[in-house]
Amino acid sequence: MAERGAIPQVPAVRRRALRLISSFTSPLLPDDYLELVNPLWSTRELRGRIERVERESEDTVTLTIKPGWEWPGHRPGQYIRLGVEVDGIHHWRAYSLTSAPGRADGCITITPKLVHGGRVSPFLFGRVQPGTIVRLGGVEGTFTLPDPLPARLLFISAGSGITPIISMLRELDAGGELCDIVHLHCSHTAEGVAFARELSALDARHPGYRLQVRVTGEQGRLAAPELDALCPDWPEREAFLCGPPGLLEAMTERWARDGDPGRLHVERFQPDAHIGDGERGTGGAIRFCASGVDAHSDGEQPILIAGETAGAQLPYGCRMGICHSCVGRLRSGRVRDLRTGRVHGQPGELLRTCVNAPEGAVEIEL
Amino acid sequence: MSATHTDSPPTTTPPIADEADPAEGENPLARLTPEQIESLGRELDAIHDEVYADLGERDARYIRSTIALHRRLVLAARALLLGSRYRPLWLAGTAALSVAKILENMEIGHNVMHGQWDWMNDPDINSRNWDWDTASPADAWRHSHNYEHHTFTNIRGLDRDLGYEIMRIDSHQRWHPVYLLQPLYNLVLMGFFEWGVALHDLNFDAIRSGEKSKGKVIDELKAIGVKARRQVVKDYIAFPALSAALSAALPPGRSGRRRSRAARRGFRATLAADFTANIVRNVWAHSIIFCGHFPDQTYTFSQEEVADETRGGWYVRQLLGSANIDGSPLFHLLAGNLSFQVEHHLYPDMPSSRYAEIAPRVRDVCRRYGLPYNTGPLSRQLGTVHRTILRLAFPGGRPRRKPGPTSPAGARTAPGR
Fold first, then answer.
1. Chain B residue with minimal CA distance to A32?
2. Touching check for B310 and chain A: CB below 8 Å?
3. pLDDT at A321 over 80
4. C-alpha atoms less than 13 angstroms from C-alpha of A121 in its C-beta half-sphere
5. Cβ B1–A28 below 8 Å, yes or no?
6. How many angstroms separate the CA atoms of B221 and B202, rounded?
7. For A305, which residue in chain B has the nearest alpha carbon?
8. Which of A21, A223, A341, B7 has the highest Cβ tally under 10 A?
9. DSSP for B257-319, written as a single string
10. Which of B113 and B24 is assigned the larger pLDDT?
11. Is residue B45 classed exposed, middle or buried when 0-12, 13-18 and 19+ CB atoms within 10 A define those classes?
12. Shortest Cα distance from A60 to chain B (angstroms)?
C-alpha cells in the first residue's frame, strides 16, 4: 500500500460528524468530496501547502509549509517525511525540520539540498511553486536536545547537516538559552553555507554562541585531531554531530577513543536510494518486514518465490506481472525487473514481487 | 511460461466437457510458428515498455480529473434528486447519477483496481485500497478478475468468466436442460449484474470441491453483506430520507397532512431514482462486459491447446479471445475503455487512457501476423452475444465462422455471418 501522510489532529466533533455523513458517501469518504474544495481538509492524512520557496544558499532552498491542520509540534532536530508528486509519480523523502516549534504563523520549514541526478530535490529546488500541496508524514528522529539542557554544547555540522542544528539554534535563541555553545560548521564553499546571515547574526548577538565556519574547499576537511585546537574542552561538552559519513566516522572514533561516546549525538541522514552500482542480477537478502521472514534470492528468483521458499505467506496472483495481486511496498534497497533487466526501486514504491528480484539487500513491507 | 504453471492452479474440474468439433475452422494460434509467436511477443512487449516509459504528469492529470468529474457529477445528481418529486429534476438527477455510477464502476473502479494507476504511488488512487460502489468486495473481485480471468482468459474449464458458471456461452459447453432458462435469467442478470458478479467471485465450484474453506466463504459473504448494507443504507434509506425531510420542510406553512404526503412522495421518488440508476449501471456494465469475450469473432481454447504456453502465446490467446467495440471517445470513456478489450487484455495494467493511442499499433501487429483484430459497432457485437445466448440455450450449436485476418487499419473485414 502506498504510503500516506500522518493522521492529523482533528477535533473529535468533526470526526464524529464526518463518520455520520459517510453513510451518504460510502464507499467514498466525506473527505473525498471535501477535497474537491480544499485538499488540505483531508482528515485521513496530514497535508500541507507550500507557501514560500526561498533560496537559502547556492544549493539549498527553504520551503515554508502551512499544514492543513494544527501542527502537532516537533522537537528541534527531528525530521519529517514529505510526500511530493514529481511528473505524476509520488515520492517520499525525509527532511530535517529547520523551523523552531510553535511558530506564530503555524508554518513549518524544511531546507532540502539539491542532489544532482536525484528525483525530488531538483524538483523542490527549481520547479516547485507556492500553492503546491504536499503530504506530511509523521515526525521522527531522536537527534534532539536533552532535557534539562546541558550547560555546555558543541555542534558539529557539515553541508546540509546544518538543517537539524538550525532548528535547535532557533529554539535556543527564542528561549534565551544560547549560553555556551561552540558550533563548528563545514561547507565546501563560502557561498554554500545555508542560513549564513542568520548564523553570523546569532554569533554577533550572543557572546555565548561561537561559530567557526570551515570552508573545506580552501582549508581542507575537518580532521578529528583539530578538535583540540578548535574547542579544547570538547570532551566536557554534550556534542551534536550531523554531516557526511566520513566526518561522522572520524568523530565517532575520536569520541570512542578520547571522550565519552554517550555524550556524542549523531544524526545519520538516510542514505539516498542509490545503493551501490551492483552488477546485474546479483540477487540479495530479502527482509519481509510484516511477516518477519528473511529470504535470499540468487538474482534469478523473484522476490515472491524466494519468500515462499523461505516459508512466508505472501499475496500472489498471476505470477507474470499482470494482475498486481502480489504488490508490496519497498522499504529499502533496489530491485531488478526480471522482464526488462531494469534496476529500479525507490523507498515507498509498490513492487510486483512476482517479477522483481532483489539487487542487493531489500526490505519489503509484506 | 505456462499459464497453468502456478503453485495452485484452480483444481476445479471443468464444468463443461470438451467436445472438440472437427468441422471447426483452424485456430489461428495453430498457424503461427514458435518463432513468429516469440517475435510477436517481443513486439507487443515493446509497445508496453514504450508506454510505461512515457507515463507521467499527463496521465496523472487524466485520472485525477476523471475522478473529480465523477464526484462533481454525484454532487450534482444528489442535489437534483433532493427535489425528486418534480419530474424534470427526477429525470435529470437520475440520468446524472446513472452516468456517475457508470464512470465510477468502469473507467475508475475497474481500472484503478487493476493497478493501472499504481505507478503513481498515490495512496488515494491505488489498487490496494480502492473500493467501488458495487456489490463486489474489492479483494474478492481482484482475485477472481485480475488473476483468474486475466490469466486464464477464454481457456475452457479454467476461465470461470466464460459463461460465469451459469450460462452456456460457448458451444463446447455440454448442454443441460437448465440452460433453456438462460435467456430469462440473463435478463435478470443484466439488471442485477453487480450482485451476480459478487456471487460469482465466491467461486461455487471451489466451495463445492472443498478447496475453499468454510471460514473463507463466511468471511467473503460477510464482506458482500457489508457492501450490500452500505448500498442499501445510502441509496434506499439515507438519500430518500433526505429528500423526504426537504420535501416536508419546503415550502413552509402547509398543513401536517400535506407535509407528510410530500415527504412520502420525496422518499419514494428518490428511492426510485437510485434504484433506476443502479439498474442502468448494471445493464450498461453487463452489455459492455459481455461484448468483451462473447461476440462471434472470439475464440476459446482447450487446455491442451495452451499447454506450455509462452509469453507470446499468451498474447495471441488474448488477441483471439477478446473483442473491441467501435465508438466515440465519450463512448469509450463510459465503457471504461473496455471497448478496447483487446488492448486491455494484452496490457491489463496499462492506464486505460492509453489504449486508444496504441490501438492502431496493435491492429498493425495483427495484420502483419495474419491475425484477426476483433472489433465492431455496439449493436453488432451485442447482437451476436444475445443471439448466442438464445441459440445455446438449446442443445447443439457450433462456433460461428470467424472473420479471418484483419485488413489494414480502417478497412474492416466483413463479419463472418
1. B71
2. no
3. no
4. 18
5. no
6. 8
7. B7
8. A21
9. HHHHHHHHHHHHHHHHHHHHHHHHHHHHHHHHHHHHH-STT---B-TTTTTT--HHHHHHHHH
10. B113
11. middle
12. 25
The whole-angstrom distance between B313's CA and the closest CA on chain A is 13
Question: Taking the CB of residue B327, how many other CB atoms lie within 10 A of it?
Answer: 16
- Tell how strand A153-158 and strand A238-242 pair up: parallel
Tell whether A37 is within 8 A of chain B (Cβ): no
Give the C-alpha separation, B174 to B197, whole Å.
23
pTM of the model: 0.84
CB atoms within 10 A of CB B272: 14
Asked if residue B113 lies in contact with residue B146, where contact means CB atoms within 8 angstroms, the answer is: yes
**Are residues A24 and B238, on separate chains, in Cβ contact within 8 Å?**
yes
Per the CB < 8 A criterion, the answer to whether A97 and A79 are in contact is yes
The closest of A31, A81, A22, A79 to A348, measured between CA atoms, is A81
The reported pLDDT for the residue numbered A174 is: 92
A207 neighbors A179 (Cβ within 8 angstroms): no
Contact A58, A25 (CB under 8 A): no
Residues in contact with B394: Cβ distance below 8 Å, sequence separation at least 6, in sequence order: B175, B179, B180
Q: Is B117 helix (H, G, I), strand (E, B) or coil?
A: coil
Residue B113 identity (one-letter amino acid): M
Map grid coordinates 473483442 to a residue.
Answer: B323
Place of cell 515472491: A304
Map residue B241 onto helix, strand or coil. Answer: helix
Catalogue the E-assigned strands of B285-408. Answer: none
Euclidean distance between CA atoms A303 and A296, whole angstroms? 8
Q: What is the DSSP letter of B408?
A: S
The answer to whether the CB of B245 falls within 8 A of the CB of B263 is: yes
Q: In angstroms, rounded to a whole number, what is the distance separating the alpha carbons of residues A18 and A52?
A: 32
User: How far does B2 lie from chain A, in Å, by closest CA?
Assistant: 10
Question: What's the confidence (pLDDT) of residue A53?
Answer: 97
Most confident by average pLDDT, A117-121, A290-294, B144-148, B176-180 = B176-180
Rounded to a whole number of angstroms, the distance from the CA of A319 to the nearest CA of chain B is: 7
Arithmetic mean of pLDDT, B356-369: 96
User: Looking at this protein, which amino acid is placed at residue A79?
Assistant: Y
A213 backbone dihedrals φ, ψ, rounded to 5°? -100, 130
Instruction: Indicate if the pLDDT at residue B238 is higher than 80.
Output: yes
What would the mean pLDDT of B301-307 be, rounded to a whole number? 90
Distance CA B123, CA B125 (A): 6
Per-residue pLDDT, B110: 96
Q: Is A89's Cβ below 8 Å from some Cβ in B?
A: yes
Name the percent of chain B lying above pLDDT 90. 67
Amino acid at A309: T
Predicted confidence band at B25 (pLDDT cuts at 50, 70, 90)? low
Q: Which domains, and CATH codes, for chain A?
A: 12-140 (2.40.30.10), 153-267 (3.40.50.80), 284-365 (3.10.20.30)
B1, A90: Cβ pair inside 8 Å? no
